[in-house]
Amino acid sequence: MISVQQALQFTKNHTKTTPKTIPLPLSESLGFIIAKDITSPISMPPFRQSAMDGYALGSIDDMTFKLIGEVKAGDEKEILLHKGEAIRIFTGAPVPKTAKAVIMQEKVTVSNITITLQETARLHSNIRPAGEQIEKGDIALSKGTEITPAGIGYLASLGITTITVYQKPTIAIIATGNELVPPGQTLAHGQIYESNSVMLAATLAKSGFTDIVTHKVADDYEATRQLLDQMINTHDVVLISGGISVGDYDFVGKALGALNVKEVFYKVKQKPGKPLYFAKKEDKTIFALPGNPASSLSCFYIYVLPSLLKISGYRNYELSWRTVISDSEYTKKGQRAEFLKAHMENEKVTILDGQASSMLRSFALANAIVYLPEDISKVHVGDTVQVINLP
């Protein structure tokens, strides 16, 4: 059995960013990671641009100007301004090449075809120079950058419609257990509703992973081996829920061994989630998660999600730990490190009731996980604790 820190280090060391890249329409690229530098095909703005509604001036040492025209956003006409001349101009409109400044309309008195300035204009004031934001050929966004809504807007403003991103992994979820039936069916005695695959699929989708399939397999060795073989061959990541313990009807470990999967570790000195299993087969990643729902979800957040983010090219894929004040008392019942469902508000965290590995109700109310290392046995109100914010 290894420690939490060892398990985190092993998953990090055995997880690599995918070499697979795909072209994606910019409109579909939200949440993906750029796989190669994006250079700008144009300067932005592509022309001298007015920063406000006002008047473009042909000189700055005059106070009265003759109005000779108007330019609004989208106009293609070019006007040459001479000393003592001005044009009405609007925000975003192209500024004439010979204009010395733009003065806001609130600083101008208009009389027929002349304007009089209420204050002296400053050279180049209120003019956005061509290429102020970026020059043609410069790097707009670099490799490794996550595409955000603002990033999509920025690249669209440069006329870019397609980008190259790292391909997100295809993921198979396998739920094991004779006792599991789909929600909606009538429960027979001894049966429970299967929730882990639904929960994991929802958690994956919330984190931007949508290429997912789910399967259920009974507690049968050959059926388990065949399904695992098929899913490992056809998917980048396989998540198995249950069947990894050492009971008479836990066949996942035996089946994975028969498939020549390389075990990285099995069992972590933690609560919940002790029987966590992590393995590789060539470039495929396999996690066998405990069957208890809260254990399964805790292990997903702590180990699986960072691995998926690293595979997908994220720079910031590791857990983000914070130190906050505990608003709760809590006493450990063993020597293992613990991950506790919690709710954080106003920089204080409350450890929730219902910490059993089978209980999801408290997880449904949680927005954070409190981590207690092996050497901490008790938490008092006012103590500082380490916290991971949930996505």
UniProtKB/TrEMBL annotation:
Q: In which pathway does it act?
A: Cofactor biosynthesis; molybdopterin biosynthesis
Mention any Pfam family matching this sequence: MoeA_N
Q: What is this protein called?
A: Molybdopterin molybdenumtransferase
**Which InterPro entries does the UniProt record give?**
MoaB/Mog-like_dom_sf (IPR036425), MoaB/Mog_dom (IPR001453), MoCF_biosynth_CS (IPR008284), MoeA-like (IPR038987), MoeA_C_domain_IV (IPR005111), MoeA_C_domain_IV_sf (IPR036688), MoeA_linker/N (IPR005110), MoeA_linker/N_sf (IPR036135)
Tell me if Cell cycle is a UniProt keyword of this record: no
Q: Which family does it belong to?
A: Belongs to the MoeA family.
Its Enzyme Commission number(s) read 2.10.1.1
What keywords are annotated for this sequence in UniProt? Magnesium, Metal-binding, Molybdenum, Molybdenum cofactor biosynthesis, Transferase
Q: Which positions fall inside the MoaB/Mog domain?
A: 172-310
